[in-house]
């Protein structure tokens, strides 16, 4: 009886408070959920504390508290606020607005959630609860509060749960709470779109995970932006053509691909200002989510803000009828299932910047994702990739272009060792039947033009005897579709429109489609193909596999017989990585290194070393490297294919990345008119001396911090950056054309200085 009485008193108190709120907001009430076992004393204490808080913070109700934080619910807006008991810092769900901001502009900025839905015609609309005059019910849950939204005017309902953790708050949208069984269908939910939003006059910035990471500084001066950063976690889905193309047409030859941009490798975002910050981590539903980073001026809002949007249906376009130029919008039919959760980790003091965010996420992947340090040698390995061969389409038939046979590969390895390279790690690409882009996903037998299976086995035995890890590149994700045993309609993925997805290699100059077609394999097909070949790899006794595509490509499949969500595809890729780890006790390497692969990869190749450079960005940062260095070894894209070798070397030092080289025994001019013509400078004789020279210079520097984490990174000026390692060593790089001074240290133009643990260069 006492519990019911407490609930009634709370309800009455809330109703009285609600009478003072804006009439455009729906009537709400805070009640105790029957299924939640909360003691009566807790309710009474909450009620009394809330009354006391009203005197200090009008309109806020204290709904949860732990040793560090207090969670408040704002009845007038439906938003939340966090307070640190120890420091007094506060993180508001929406900015404090002055009285001049009224009407829809005010309710839009104070909205606790944005909702996107599709109408029966396929049109996408964005809204928020106050705009729809929806029904809102509030109830207490353990360590938090639940808000139920019923947007009756559009036929969509869902709940948001706010829960305190030690130094964080989690926001969850339970799958069981969602209802959209009318004509309108839920597309996306964006929780707390203005969480801790910052005004341009404040000092600080937004962090978003574009490539290695990017920062958007708060600026009072300058024009407002009409665009924002909005990119999918783990890259675009190739089953959704509109997300991978800048222009779509009925005639697919007129399609134009997106310009090259970096991907989102980690499901994080954040905002920092003087003495406080937060890091958002998507802990559930990250496979179907977008990262938003909005500069001032976007949608006429003078605030910098970051958020995530949970995707429940992807939208695309299709062309109906014959040769029509009208693109008809369509949305995915079945809603993507699963709970969605974003965690806001609160940071203060010295941790209130992107370096502190990186440290917080590093702790997360170690403690909750199970990432453990991979054993790493004290000497920096020379990362060598050798291209075996590739097919060329001729006027009649095809020919095989041999670039590095297996005996020649041994010769090149021996030459590098004779040049003083103490440790190598070798990967061979294009080793299988018909070479790179050849018979994949079939890899055996090994190419007879390169020496065949016996020569490859001899090379593997030699590498094992010399203590040189040898990896074989394997492609089970994106084979060249002109293969007799691959049927795109049977084995490939289908888009939202249920049609077979055909991927073409875009023209370099126009980005229009070419006649070079590829197929993304259904993840079930890909995994079965790999499992059939595991015995062959084990017999070779190689160190492991490099699994092309499984670390940098994620997609769904809308085939009715064999559907797959992006999450299901990621689970298949993880299963493949684990299976590769069972080969000769070795492991697997991947490109780029999406977050779901971090606990299974032995090495990450082609790690991102920059961002996309969008107009609102101020500079790129090595956030990704600060997360994984000392845990997972990583290497940069091949130095011999870099546009600017001098700048590339500075990037390697700033980002703590090992150099890599993609080399061939034959002249790279032989690759003209092949699918490997992007390997334009690879001749071993030409690159032996400069590669050894660069390696020795970098090995002498990075060897001093081998296996050490990057604990801090600072952008000291437009062209100068500093990287600090766990042992105290610092690397300062100067990308500018003039000498620069940092304290008593002068950094020459386009050069670097490394200070030892004692602070001396």
TrEMBL record:
Protein keywords: Signal
Signal sequence region: 1-26
Pfam family, one: DUF5696
Keyword flag Signal: yes
The protein's name in its UniProt record: DUF5696 domain-containing protein
Native source organism of the sequence: Paenibacillus chungangensis
Phylogenetic placement of the source organism: Bacteria, Bacillati, Bacillota, Bacilli, Bacillales
């Amino acid at each position: 009886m006492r519990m019911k009485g407490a609930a009634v008193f709370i309800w009455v108190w809330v109703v009285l408070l609600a009478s003072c709120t804006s009439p455009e907001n729906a009537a709400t009430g805070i009640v105790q959920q029957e299924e939640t076992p909360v003691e009566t004393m807790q309710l009474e204490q909450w009620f009394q504390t809330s009354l006391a808080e009203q005197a200090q913070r009008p309109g806020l109700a204290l709904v949860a508290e732990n040793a560090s934080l207090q969670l408040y619910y704002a009845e007038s807006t439906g938003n939340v606020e966090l307070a640190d008991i120890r420091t007094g810092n506060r993180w508001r769900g929406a900015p404090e607005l002055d009285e001049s901001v009224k009407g829809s502009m005010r309710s839009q900025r104070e909205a606790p959630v944005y909702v996107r839905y599709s109408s029966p015609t396929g049109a996408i609309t964005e809204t928020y609860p106050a705009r729809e005059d929806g029904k809102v019910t509030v109830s207490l849950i353990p360590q938090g509060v639940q808000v139920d939204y019923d947007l009756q005017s559009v036929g969509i309902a869902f709940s948001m749960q706010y829960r305190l953790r030690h130094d964080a708050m989690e926001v969850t949208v339970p799958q069981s709470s969602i209802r959209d069984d009318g004509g309108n269908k839920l597309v996306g939910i964006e929780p707390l779109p203005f969480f801790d939003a910052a005004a341009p006059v404040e000092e600080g910035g937004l962090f978003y995970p574009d490539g290695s990471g990017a920062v958007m500084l708060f600026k009072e001066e300058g024009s407002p932006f009409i665009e924002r950063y909005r990119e999918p976690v783990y890259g675009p889905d190739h089953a959704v053509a509109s997300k991978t193309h800048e222009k779509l047409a009925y005639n697919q030859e007129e399609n134009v691909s997106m310009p090259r941009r970096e991907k989102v490798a980690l499901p994080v975002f954040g905002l920092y200002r003087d003495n406080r910050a937060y890091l958002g981590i998507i802990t559930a539903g990250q496979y179907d989510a977008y990262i938003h980073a909005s500069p001032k001026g976007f949608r006429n809002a003078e605030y910098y803000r970051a958020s995530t949007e949970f995707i429940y249906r992807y939208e695309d376009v299709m062309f109906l009828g014959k040769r029509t130029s009208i693109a008809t919008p369509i949305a995915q039919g079945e809603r993507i299932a699963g709970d969605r959760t974003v965690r806001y980790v609160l940071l203060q003091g010295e941790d209130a910047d992107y370096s502190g965010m990186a440290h917080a996420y590093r702790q997360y992947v170690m403690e909750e994702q199970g990432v453990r340090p991979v054993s790493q040698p004290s000497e920096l390995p020379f990362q060598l990739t050798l291209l075996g061969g590739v097919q060329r389409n001729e006027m009649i038939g095809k020919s095989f272009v041999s670039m590095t046979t297996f005996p020649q590969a041994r010769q090149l390895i021996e030459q590098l060792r004779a040049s003083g390279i103490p440790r190598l790690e070798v990967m061979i690409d294009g080793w299988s039947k018909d070479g790179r882009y050849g018979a994949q996903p079939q890899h055996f037998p090994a190419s007879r033009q390169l020496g065949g299976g016996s020569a490859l086995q001899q090379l593997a035995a030699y590498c094992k005897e010399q203590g040189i890890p040898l990896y074989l590149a394997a492609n089970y994700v994106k084979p060249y579709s002109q293969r007799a045993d691959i049927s795109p309609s049977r084995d490939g993925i289908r888009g939202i429109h249920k049609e077979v997805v055909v991927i073409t290699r875009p023209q370099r100059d126009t980005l229009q489609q070419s006649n070079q077609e590829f197929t993304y394999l259904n993840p079930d097909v890909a995994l079965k193909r790999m499992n059939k070949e595991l015995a062959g790899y084990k017999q070779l006794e190689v160190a492991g596999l490099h699994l092309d595509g499984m670390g940098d490509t994620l997609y769904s499949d809308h085939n009715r017989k064999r559907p797959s969500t992006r999450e299901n595809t990621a689970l298949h890729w993880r299963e493949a990585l684990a299976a590769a780890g069972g080969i000769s006790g070795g492991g697997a390497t991947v490109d780029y290194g999406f977050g779901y692969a971090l606990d299974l990869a032995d090495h990450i190749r082609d790690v991102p070393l920059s961002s996309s450079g969008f107009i609102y960005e101020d500079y790129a940062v090595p956030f990704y490297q600060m997360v994984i260095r000392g845990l997972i070894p990583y290497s940069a894209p091949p130095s011999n294919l870099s546009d600017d070798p001098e700048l590339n070397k500075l990037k390697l030092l700033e980002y703590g990345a090992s150099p890599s080289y993609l080399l061939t025994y034959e002249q790279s001019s032989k690759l003209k008119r092949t699918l490997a013509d992007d390997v334009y400078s690879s001749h071993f004789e030409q690159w032996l001396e400069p590669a050894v020279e660069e390696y020795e210079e970098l090995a002498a520097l990075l060897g001093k911090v081998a296996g050490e984490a990057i604990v801090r990174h600072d952008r000291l000026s437009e062209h100068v950056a500093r990287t600090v390692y766990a042992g105290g060593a610092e690397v300062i790089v100067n990308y500018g054309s003039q000498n620069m001074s940092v304290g008593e240290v002068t950094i020459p133009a386009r050069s670097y200085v490394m200070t030892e643990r004692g602070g001396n260069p």
